[in-house]
Amino acid sequence: MLDAYLPRTDRWRILAATVPVALSSGTLFVYSVYGTQLADKCGLDSSLAANLNISATVGTSVGGLLGGYITDMYGTQIPVFSSLVFVGLGYKWLHWLYGQGMDAPAWQLIVAMFLVGIGSTSSYFASIKAVTVMFPQYKGSAQSVTIASFAISSLLYSFVYSSVFKGDVGRFLLFLSLSSLVMQFIGVLFVRVDGHKTDRPDVQGPELNHGPEFDHLIHERLPLVLASSSSVNLPSLAEDDKPGGLTLKLLDVKHSLVHPIFIFHFVVMAIMQGIGQMYIYSLDL
Fold first, then answer.
1. In this structure, are residues 35 and 54 in contact, taking their beta carbons and an 8 Å threshold?
2. Which of 111, 116, 102 lies closest to 177 in space, CA to CA?
3. What is the DSSP letter of 194?
């Protein structure tokens, strides 16, 4: 397998590697910095410029859904490597199209932003899954490192754009491409957690495949599993098969998606994220 040719990793290396991965993923929201200049250089009207935003948003949805499923089933390496390709290619494509100016086809700009959107979410959610698995007793603390890196990404890149590149969009897009390739490649090397369908006879669990240094995870998880098992009233499941009669922790995916609590939170988060993206993409810097 590829693991034999990759550097040794452990949970601390995984946590550290999610920082550059999240920084690269968060570059999607720096679009407001160069979006106006890109539209002007390529001769896009307001409708076509809005389509770039829409394609990036659709890409994040597709990347999140597919990346999450692939991460659960086959591990984190496929989504992270996909992000390396999609984000790096997307920004390099934008850089090339920006150089073409008025001759740049609008559909290619839309596809390039779509690729950036896909890559931005697939590796990010894979990183969240990885730190959650590696730190079962400190999920919140571990996730906060990755999420904070994602959140601050646009601020850091905006500073680089204004201070280092002095508003040069072409050079900045090339920098986005190269830096994303490097940072996502770090994730490919170290963010390695297996999925449920990994077929390895020498593995005791789906994620513990990296050697003796991961044995401590068994001791961390065992108390959590025992405590969870002791608190579950199994007979109650047979007494009530309706989704509303089950505790939220015991619902399968199908019942979770139609549960009122999930729908409520989904709608609230969708509205909040939509308002946030609308504001970010409408900035004229």
1. no
2. 116
3. -
Paired tokens of 235: 């007979």
pLDDT exceeds cutoff 70 at 157: yes
State whether residue 44 is helix, strand or coil.
coil
Give the angle 146-150-151 at the CA atoms, nearest 5°: 115
Residue type, 97: L
Q: Is pLDDT at 212 greater than 60 in this prediction?
A: no
Q: Which helix (H) or strand (E) holds 138?
A: none
DSSP-derived 3-state class of residue 252: coil
Domains parsed from the chain with CATH numbers: 8-198 (1.20.1250.20)
Residue with more model confidence, 85 or 198 = 85
- Write the DSSP symbol of residue 204: S
| DSSP for residue 205 | S
3-class SS string, 54-96: HHHHHHHHHHHHHHHHHHHHHCCHHHHHHHHHHHHHHHHHHHH
Contact 175, 165 (CB under 8 A): yes
Q: Say whether pTM exceeds 0.85.
A: no
User: What 3-state DSSP class applies to 196?
Assistant: coil
Contact predicate 79/69, CB 8 Å: no
Q: Could you tell me the sign of the dihedral formed by the alpha carbons of 7, 10, 15, 21, in that order?
A: positive
